[in-house]
Amino acid sequence: MKRVLFVAGTRPEIIKISPLIDIFKRSKKYKIFFGLTGQHKELANQALDIESPKPVFNLNLQTANQSLPELTAMALVGLNREIENIQPDIIIIQGDTTTTLACALAAYYQQIPVAHIEAGLRTDDNYSPFPEEVNRKITSIISMFHFSPTNKAKENLITEGHNESKIFVVGNTIIDALNQITYEIKKTDNSKRLSEYFIRGYNIQFKDKKTILVTIHRRESHGKILEEICLAIKEIARLYKEIQIIIPVHPNPNVKEIIYANLKAVDNIYLIQSLNYEHFIYLMMNSYLILTDSGGIQEEAISLGKPLIILRKITERLEAIEVGGAVLAGTNKKVILENFKNIYKNKRIYKEMSEAENPYGDGKASQYIYNIIHSKL
Hints:
alpha/beta, 13 strands, 377 residues, six-stranded parallel β-sheet, 2 domains, 16% strand, 50% helix
């Protein structure tokens, strides 16, 4: 029986890889292993509360004020040891984190094939997003199988010289996970339970006010850029008293301290703790408009029909912009305000954005990936 190792380190990785693990488990044709690096301990644990796989190892790598060289070195050494113990026939990784890079390198050193999910995303700026852009480029060099979410991602890989026969456009597995969780949320009992969670925990209700969801956390935005974004959010709250702005605050001190310093005292802004995936998707479903610098939310928002303002200077997910579901506002206060006003006040624009076609697949990406690996392994 072939041995398949899945490795993740962050909450998005766990969420995106879980539907595929479930399919491999149900097939009963492989011996499945799932390992964690613990790159993001708290947030990863939130995903594990909802998703099904239980790790056979957890390196628990995250420490206070950890540098990228320290994290990368510890992940590489720890993963190399675990891979030696498990001796998988193939290793499946997702995305572009330090965990992804370290696992690809560890697999390469032991000459074990790598399957890379969400392959081919590019900004062509090695420092934005940082360090993800270089992480995924190196991972692509190592990988045997490239599972791209879109044709644009496939074209990026071909342009770089990767073998087209090893590139497969399958959609994004986040749509698989999103479809599963929204189906469960829409059940009456779950919807009521989740509504009560926000009422009891934060005195937040979604009936009377339009909810604006904001998430900001990217490493390249730390410092003055994050402060500029916060000033824009504060001005939106001042200009539009009828809305409520909800910000699940990332636990990273470099993010948390700036957000609280700038936005804590604003009446119609709710700063809440980071949420597990079920609670977060419920919040997205009840939002009118979303502002984010997250990669994954750019895929989820258009799938849920929520107009999106991207708080980044550049994005690797151009598809949502091209179909009209998102705008790239950058990090300048004035430009963010102009984009918000344009979407919020113009019903025609809002309607067109909310009805944009989802470019990230049909929710069957995990099954397509399984079928391909099963035919090749």
